[in-house]
Structures are given as structure tokens and as C-alpha cells.
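Repro:
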Amino acid sequence: MDARDDIYEYSLDTHHSEEAGKKMRKKFMMVLALLSAVTIIEVGMGMIWSRDESMKDILKYTFIILTLVKAGYITMIFMHLGDEKKSFQWTVLAPYFVLIGYLIFICLVEATYAGGTRPGIENYFGF
């Protein structure tokens, strides 16, 4: 049977030297260490300050900010956005931060809604 010529194996084109491999592994380990450190800090803050009522709001917003930072960093590294021009980076990341920030704002405002001004569903359907 003849070999198919319509299939191209892209993994065969990944030729790099041992130095390049060491550089990639070092970059991966730095990303792993940084994201692990931020996660450990988040967990530690949650364990220490979650019982204190005065710190809950600060803790909540700190978690949101650190989560956005981690998401942006993951996008820059693993989606190779960090290799692009700055204008393209801002074109991709700015709407992300604005829209995610707006979504979080809506969730926080709606989560604290106590009722009283909006009619219930029974008023719409005549129950």
C-alpha cells in the first residue's frame, strides 16, 4: 500500500537544539513557579483572613484581581500573546479585562440584592 501524501505530520518539523529545549523547560518552570506562588498566596490569605468580617470585602476583591492577573499571564505565555506586538496585546486583553470586570461587577451587585423594589415573576404572569 502506498503512503498517503495528503497527510502532513507537523511534529516532524519541531527540530530544536538541546539549548533551546533547556530554555523552553526553564520558561515553563518559571511560569509554574509564579502561578503556584500566586495560588499559594491566595489560599493562605483565604485561610488566615476569611474569618475576619472586616477583611472579607478586601479579600474578595483581592481574589478577583489576582485571578485576572493569573488569567492574563496564562494568556500571554501559553497562548503566545506575549510574542506579539504591544498594540495587538492590548487589543486582545483590554476588552477581556473590561468585560470580565463588568461581569464581576454585575455579579457582586446582584448577589447583594435584598429584594423589595422588583416585582416577582408571579406579577408578570398573573399568578
